[in-house]
């Protein structure tokens, strides 16, 4: 029996890169789509927010002198490209998918309307939210938290390269230990790079749990949805 009925999966743009330097690796997109298709067939209502870091990083460009708002809008457009790639991979597996964007571009996607998004989920469609919140200065992590609240998701599942939250970066510190569960406040106080502080605060205010897990391990997404101990749980 699934632990959650409606989930929001947060993916970084880098998740679609595979071993490439940038862009989308179709094989990786297909593998992620396969995982999503598995939970969708179990009757889990699934929404996805995807980043754009594999194509364009707004923060990096603004650090090099580009206007922050302009750089962020370019980053939002990158997330739309990723959303379309993911939609294509899902539809090849016969999973009906809708891309909803915070910036209107009707030729490729529907505009984000909260009630319409919920209706799609109720009809068993996978919904991919693109273009972040539609506002500069907000990350796709914050967009994930915001959309999760709006659609009344039971949990945010954040797929990463590591199997949870550690006391330090496990790539750099082999002796770092993993948290099974951790409170929102603890994440903020320790400055752990789980999601940005705005996203964590938003989840804390609305008591929305976050599961950080390794997306690269096949079957992990299904295990997370079933409530098995996979990764780290951020909760009150």
Description of the structure:
- The chain has a nine-stranded mixed beta sheet, sandwiched between helices. A two-stranded antiparallel sheet has the order 7-8.
- It starts with 5 loop residues before the first strand and ends with a strand.
- Helix 1 (26-41) links the parallel strand 1 and strand 2.
- By secondary structure, the chain is of the alpha/beta class.
- The protein is built from eight helices and eleven strands.
- Helix content is 37%, strand content 19%.
- The radius of gyration is 17 Å and the shape is globular.
- The chain has a single domain, classed as Carbamate kinase (3-Layer(aba) Sandwich).
- It has helices at 26-41, 58-63, 68-91, 114-122, 140-150, 184-190, 197-205, 220-225, and strands at residues 6-11, 45-50, 97-101, 110-111, 126-130, 155-160, 165-166, 178-179, 181-183, 210-214, 232-235.
Topology (elements, then pairings):
Blueprint: E1 6-11, H1 26-41, E2 45-50, H2 58-63, H3 68-91, E3 97-101, E4 110-111, H4 114-122, E5 126-130, H5 140-150, E6 155-160, E7 165-166, E8 178-179, E9 181-183, H6 184-190, H7 197-205, E10 210-214, H8 220-225, E11 232-235
Parallel strand pairs: 1-2, 1-6, 2-5, 3-4, 3-5, 6-10, 9-11
Antiparallel strand pairs: 7-8, 10-11
